[in-house]
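In practice, a research group might receive sequence data for several interacting partners and want a quick structural hypothesis before committing to experiments. The following worked case mirrors that situation: the sequences arrive first, and a predicted assembly follows.
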Amino acid sequence: MEVSRIATRALIVALVVIVSAAVSATAKANDEGGSLCGMSQDELLECKPAVATGSAAPPPPSGACCAALGHANLTCFCSFKNNKYLPMFGINSTRAMELPSKCDPNQTAHC
Ligand SMILES: *[C@@H]1O[C@H](CO)[C@@H](O)[C@H](O)[C@H]1NC(C)=O
Ligand SMILES: *[C@@H]1O[C@H](CO)[C@@H](O)[C@H](O)[C@H]1NC(C)=O
Ligand SMILES: *[C@@H]1O[C@H](CO)[C@@H](O)[C@H](O)[C@H]1NC(C)=O
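A structural hypothesis for the assembly, expressed as tokens:
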């Protein structure tokens, strides 16, 4: 279902954000001319503020972030689902899971 697919993207995007950060030094870590799973690093970074850790409520995802979620390669992103490095990179996985629902209130998370 499209609903679950989009929802899954949210968590995965957060994962990819950190993966992207981790590999940025090598730059060519993935396909499509520097993009990762169909999203450019700029697009990934658009989503990062909305999933950052911290006591304060994060800002809502930008339109660019939500748009990027819509064209990301879910199959690819799902391979990062069990990545354990989110907290290390300042990503709150709870907020990551909430990301799709913030773009679309009807979305729920499932990979
Ligand atoms: C993660 O986000 C949730 C929901 O916003 C929040 O309750 C929790 O305190 C956050 N945890 C950290 C470590 O930022
Ligand atoms: C999405 O990513 C998967 C895994 O990397 C790949 O096998 C698949 O061909 C990709 N799909 C598209 C439409 O790019
Ligand atoms: C969410 O789902 C309800 C019921 O199907 C629908 O009326 C509403 O328009 C949907 N909202 C969005 C933002 O898609």
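Before designing any experiment, note the following. The domain at 2-103 is CATH 1.10.110.10 (Hydrophobic Seed Protein). The chain is about 50% helix and 0% strand.
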